[in-house]
Write a structure and sequence with these properties.
By secondary structure, this protein is an alpha+beta fold. It has 7 helices and 11 strands. GO terms for molecular function: ATP binding; transmembrane receptor protein tyrosine kinase activity.
């Protein structure tokens, strides 16, 4: 969900498998969601997890987001994703975290269904607007994500490489975080991120970027970079720098410059 654009699938009316053990949440409880949902458009994403828009005839929503592992996923990735689904099924809802609607697990695959709140993330929001957000609005965005991160931490969840592209914005301009991971799976998630063709180096804490180590404290660094993004109106930290260049800057205690919209008092 990193991009507004979506790629239509040729077999857009194909159905997700119907033989599965299901975990229901919220208004979806007691509904056989798998028998009433069709994939419509694949959202632009990277890595082994696919994100799709899907239509449903169930009463709680007409459009949902479904994610599952691609055909090229490894056995380890499949098992990790299944474990993620199992953990998410018992996490309570929060106003600033994308809501889980349903989880379906078959013998091999796991499908995770989330509410559809639009596909505009904060990064794209600033890229596609001609007016700049007010300081109070920027602070509101920061407070929304702060509340989300406190909630996740209290429930032993993390958000490796938190960034503005990982925060969706509703039509009421409420921020909702997605791509969260339970603490016991976060290290595996980080290992996957570090193996990507494009590593989110600018958002990774020094211990993660330099040594591949991760803990809940690493999220504090990522959150700081996220705040820099907010007050820079979605600018890219360490723009045009390679992974090695960013690592050298971080190791050399080079810090990002103060955003122009962020006063010294703030």
């Amino acid at each position: 969900m990193n991009n507004i654009s979506a790629t239509n699938r040729s077999d857009a009316t194909s159905h997700v498998g119907t033989s599965a053990h299901s975990h229901h949440r919220g208004q979806g409880q007691g509904v056989n969601l798998l028998g009433n949902i069709s994939l419509t458009s694949r959202l632009t994403s990277t890595g082994s997890i696919e994100y799709w828009l899907a239509s449903t005839r169930c009463t709680f929503n007409s459009t949902v987001i479904v994610r599952f592992m691609s055909e090229n996923a490894t056995v380890c990735e499949l098992l990790t994703f299944r474990a993620l689904g199992k953990n998410l099924s018992v996490l309570n809802d929060h106003d600033n975290v994308v809501k889980l609607l349903h989880i379906a697990v078959s013998e091999v695959h796991c499908y995770i269904y989330n509410e559809y709140v639009g596909i505009t993330n904060l990064k794209n929001y600033w890229m596609n607007t001609t007016s700049r957000s007010s300081t109070s609005q920027l602070i509101k965005f920061a407070v929304d994500v702060t509340d989300a991160m406190i909630f996740l931490n209290n429930n032993k969840y993390n958000h490796p490489a938190l960034a503005s592209r990982k925060v969706l914005l509703t039509d009421k301009e409420v921020c909702k975080v997605y791509d969260i991971w339970p603490s016991d799976l976060s290290q595996r998630r980080v290992e996957d991120l570090l193996q990507k063709e494009i590593v989110p180096s600018a958002w990774l804490a020094p211990e993660t970027l330099l040594y591949g180590e991760y803990s809940e404290k690493s999220d504090v660094w990522s959150f700081g970079i996220f705040l820099w993004e907010i007050f820079s109106y979605g600018a890219t930290p360490y723009k045009n720098c390679s992974r090695e260049e960013i690592a050298n800057k971080v190791e050399g205690l080079h810090r990002l410059s103060q955003p122009s919209s962020c006063s010294s008092e703030m």
